[in-house]
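It is worth pausing here to work through a concrete case rather than discussing structure prediction in the abstract. The textbook approach is simple: state the sequence, then state the predicted structure, then interpret. We follow exactly that order.
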Amino acid sequence: MSDKNFTNKRKCVRLDLRSSVNFNIIETSEEQVSANRFRAVGKNVGAEGMLLTAEEELEPGVILDLEVFFPDKPNPVYIKGEVRWCLSIKEEPDKFDIGVRFRNVDKNNAFLLVEYVCGHLGKEILKRLNPNGLK
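Step two, the predicted structure:
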């Protein structure tokens, strides 16, 4: 995201990670999920959204049906999200960074998401506060 006009409007902190993500595009006119399944890599995640890298260029406003596989979690988290922005990656012109804002997260998946993000952020904070480990 080397675009000089890009401004960070996030309200929540993000956790850097590398996760596998599968997604379908939801056809908004009929609220139907497309049959095409795409793959992406999650780069970071927070309580309100995530950053994906994919080979598909997506328009802002497109709704996605996401299946996110968090590292060290046995089951995926299912979330709907809206594409907020999409930028070509200069070093890899056939790939795009895609900013996704979560929407319509059901209670169980919201809990799994918050549990994962908060748990890992908590561990990172503890490491920084006490790099020699807890006593």
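Step three, interpretation. The chain has one domain: 15-129. Residues 1-7 have pLDDT under 50 and may be disordered.
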